[in-house]
Amino acid sequence: MSGQWNSIVAVWVLAVVGATLTGAFARAGETLAGVGLTLAGCTLITLCLQLATGRKEGYVIRVTASIVGAVIVLSTATVVFAAVGLA
After folding, report:
1. How do residues 47-59 score in pLDDT, each as one tens digit?
2. Distance CA 26, CA 3 (A)
3. Confidence (pTM)
4. How far apart are CA 6 and CA 50, in angstroms?
5. Domain tally, the chain
6. Which domain holds residue 27?
7. Burial of 40 (0-12, 13-18, 19+ CB in 10 A)
């Protein structure tokens, strides 16, 4: 299961990196578009990584954990962006 957790956590890290880059480089008012693009990228990477594992047992749970974790990270980033005035 540790290899499967690695692919889940990798997507969460990608969400953190995407949120950080969005906060650093997006203009005020464009951060929500950056967050949306980051979530889309996380979703695509999730599907690719989970298909690459070659295991069908627990596929839905792994995909759900990856995407829900990315949504939590990006939701938190959106709240921070709104508090700072970037949103």
Report:
1. 999 999 888 999 9
2. 34
3. 0.91
4. 11
5. 1
6. 2-84
7. exposed
